[in-house]
UniProtKB/TrEMBL annotation:
<keyword id="KW-0479">Metal-binding</keyword>
<dbReference type="GO" id="GO:0051538">
    <property type="term" value="F:3 iron, 4 sulfur cluster binding"/>
</dbReference>
<keyword id="KW-0004">4Fe-4S</keyword>
<keyword id="KW-0813">Transport</keyword>
<keyword id="KW-0411">Iron-sulfur</keyword>
<dbReference type="Pfam" id="PF13247">
    <property type="entry name" value="Fer4_11"/>
</dbReference>
<dbReference type="InterPro" id="IPR017896">
    <property type="entry name" value="4Fe4S_Fe-S-bd"/>
</dbReference>
<dbReference type="GO" id="GO:0051539">
    <property type="term" value="F:4 iron, 4 sulfur cluster binding"/>
</dbReference>
<keyword id="KW-0560">Oxidoreductase</keyword>
<protein>
    <submittedName>
        <fullName>Respiratory nitrate reductase 2 subunit beta</fullName>
        <ecNumber>1.7.99.4</ecNumber>
    </submittedName>
</protein>
<dbReference type="GO" id="GO:0009061">
    <property type="term" value="P:anaerobic respiration"/>
</dbReference>
<feature type="domain" description="4Fe-4S ferredoxin-type">
    <location>
        <begin position="74"/>
        <end position="103"/>
    </location>
</feature>
<keyword id="KW-0677">Repeat</keyword>
<dbReference type="GO" id="GO:0016491">
    <property type="term" value="F:oxidoreductase activity"/>
</dbReference>
<dbReference type="GO" id="GO:0016020">
    <property type="term" value="C:membrane"/>
</dbReference>
<dbReference type="GO" id="GO:0046872">
    <property type="term" value="F:metal ion binding"/>
</dbReference>
<keyword id="KW-0003">3Fe-4S</keyword>
Length: 156
């Protein structure tokens, strides 16, 4: 393949893919059956939500001191001006939530939507969660109120 042939959409497989495959040196050794099974794969958005740990190891592993934990709310952030792109924080995070942006040359992570939090709005992940399993804030539980909810009550 001498030049890159662009399609209408990067993720979209259209007719003529097998024609393009024959000209692609990277796919020469790939069997047609295996290549045909690639059309059965799918793409999805999987958010990499930071845990905002109580004692974050990414803060300790960052040699430039770019990662810090805010005292007022415990949100862990990366100062993009201080980040030197050494990527030690990526291996330091036990949950692998920090990723490297190759375009900017800096590490990035979930910022817990702190601009939204400061303005009183919920995070985007909690607002758009389809299953409504992400909630913000403290959930108060009154044990006396819910005492018999799990017990089977005999009818009188």
């Amino acid at each position: 393949m001498d030049k890159v042939i662009w399609g209408p959409n990067w993720e979209e497989l259209l007719g003529g893919e097998f024609e393009k495959r024959a000209r692609d040196r990277n796919l020469e050794a790939m069997q047609k059956e295996m290549y045909g099974s690639l059309k059965n794969t799918f793409m999805m958005y999987l958010p990499r939500l930071c845990e905002h740990c109580l004692n974050p190891s990414c803060v300790a592993t960052c040699p430039s001191g770019a990662i810090y934990k805010r005292e007022e709310d415990g949100i862990v952030l990366i100062d993009q001006d201080k980040c030197r792109g050494w990527r030690l924080c990526i291996s330091g995070c036990p949950y692998k939530k920090i990723y490297f942006n190759w375009k900017s040359g800096k590490s990035e992570k979930c910022i817990f939507c702190y601009p939204r939090i400061e303005s009183g709005q919920p995070t985007v992940c909690s607002e758009t969660c389809v299953g409504r399993i992400r909630y913000l804030g403290v959930l108060l539980y009154d044990a006396d109120r819910h005492r018999g909810s799990g017990e089977h009550r005999a009818r009188s």
